[in-house]
Amino acid sequence: MKSLADQSRSELLALDNQLCFLLYSSSRMMTALYRPLLEKLGLTYPQYLVLLVMWELEGQSEEVTIKTLGDRLMLDSGTLTPLLKRMEQQGLLSRQRATDDERKVLVRLTDKGTGLKVEAAEVPRTLLCRSTIKNENLVGLREGLRELLNELTSR
Questions:
Q1: For residue 32, what is the enclosing H or E element?
Q2: How far apart are CA 85 and CA 70, in angstroms?
Q3: Does position 129 have pLDDT exceeding 90, yes or no?
Q4: Residue 60 counted as domain residue
Q5: Structural domains of the chain, count
Q6: What percent of the chain has pLDDT over 90?
Q7: Interaxial angle between packed helices 45-57 and 66-73, expressed in degrees from 0 to 180 and rounded to the nearest 10
Q8: What is the full DSSP assignment across 82-145?
Q9: Residue 105, phi then psi, degrees to nearest 5
Q10: What domain range is 152 assigned to?
Q11: Mean pLDDT of the chain
């Protein structure tokens, strides 16, 4: 594989050589693979991501705020608030203003939201079972993407 410095202008501009396109396309395909599995749980992919964070933070701290979720998911409150409102309407979580600071909105899982954790654990397991990519390659890919994300967010 040629280094970027050694590529011609045409090679630099080829769609298949664009990291951004490969990431974008891969993300869309992964979301499409998740969709039927999550539909069985009554969830969209963004709702699933919120629940993953909530389950991860469960028991680690007393309160989860919209800011905490936004920071972890890299979403602003304008995107997150309508998502959380729909999840509240579905009975998955509750939102409540903090008594000590009304600017803070606390988010808590309901029993229904907590109960989905067991069923949701089968989602990644199912997808991994369908994959023909070797486990060590998946781990390497995940670590490489984490490194890229860290690099991009540190700027």
A1: helix 19-39
A2: 14
A3: no
A4: yes
A5: 2
A6: 68
A7: 110
A8: HHHHHHHHTTSEEEEE-SS-TT-EEEEE-HHHHHHHHHHTHHHHHHHHH--S-HHHHHHHHHHH
A9: -110, 120
A10: 121-155
A11: 91
